[in-house]
Amino acid sequence: MGKLAAINHPSKPRGLFDCPCVTHYITSYHLWYLFDASSGKMGKYSDSDEWVDVVPIPQDDGGPNPLAAIAYTEEYSEAMSYLRAAMAKNEKSDRALKLTEEIIRMNPAHYTVWLYRADMLFSLQKDLLEELEWLNTVALKHTKNFQIWHHRQVVMSHIPTLPPRETAFLALMFAKDAKNYHVWSYRQWLVRHFSLWNFELPYIESLLQIDVRNNSAWNHRWFVVFARHTDPKKHSIKNGDADSDVPPEIIEREIEYTKAAISTAPQNQSPWNYLRGVLRKKGMGLVELKGFAEQYADLEKEDEVRSSHALDFLADVYAAEEHKERSGKALELLARRYDPIRKNYWDYRRSLLALDQVSA
């Protein structure tokens, strides 16, 4: 048998497995296959001179008959057994770094492996720009994996200046998926970390020109415009209250920009929500844009309503003006004709006005 052949014996393990550092992990009832004993086929690491000094630590699933053992591949199980051994010794080496790369290739969601890899990168003083290049290939293959982007953030936090190709790579990621939450979250961190406030807005506008319905881009615009005026240690930009630190000319610019965006796609909910937020930041009521909203939803011309979101906006405007009947009519139009899928919600909103029920 090979040097790492598994044993199946009801008594105490013998030979190599009699070592105290191994028997801690292996009970007398475990059956571990570190290579295919029947065929004599050795594993990638068990047959490698580079790892000859390492005693692998196999997975403990809880006894000989685990309730829900995960069916790992032999390749992955072997790699992880060697990684456990390396981590147990807190090994920081090129071979261990390469081992994390192999495991990430098989399982890019293994958060512990990413943390161990980052620790080794810094301890070994590796070229972090090379790490970013490697990460690019991994991210393009696994576009919705958040561990990749957390690792990228950790690596980037140790780089003093923004790498010249970083924003180009993010643009490539957005070209594949313009609403990738993990990439947007990372980009927000990047903007704040490197103070990219003055350079970010033109890029966001280019994305909205391509797709004015890109709700992720609208969300990022809010961050870029307002987060720079907010101390993250004291306040959150999610607070919609009036903000005196935002220059009034910025507020006016955002109102006009959003109105123009609405004019191109009145049924797009994102700019309507954005507009509400900007008005609250200024301490303005929705009433101040009543005339604008009525361009898209005239209650006297029910057949010509161009935006259900304008109706929603106007329902709040009329309620603020104590015009309950007009507010109720806007909500009734939404329930009956322009957004019947949410009829119960609009009926509930109308019930808050204490108006008579409208028959179906």
From TrEMBL:
It holds the Pfam family PPTA. The keyword Transmembrane does not apply. InterPro entries: Prenyl_trans_a. Signal peptide: none annotated. It comes from Letharia columbiana. Keywords: Magnesium, Prenyltransferase, Repeat, Transferase. The keyword Transcription does not apply. This is Protein farnesyltransferase/geranylgeranyltransferase type-1 subunit alpha. Its EC number is 2.5.1.58, 2.5.1.59.
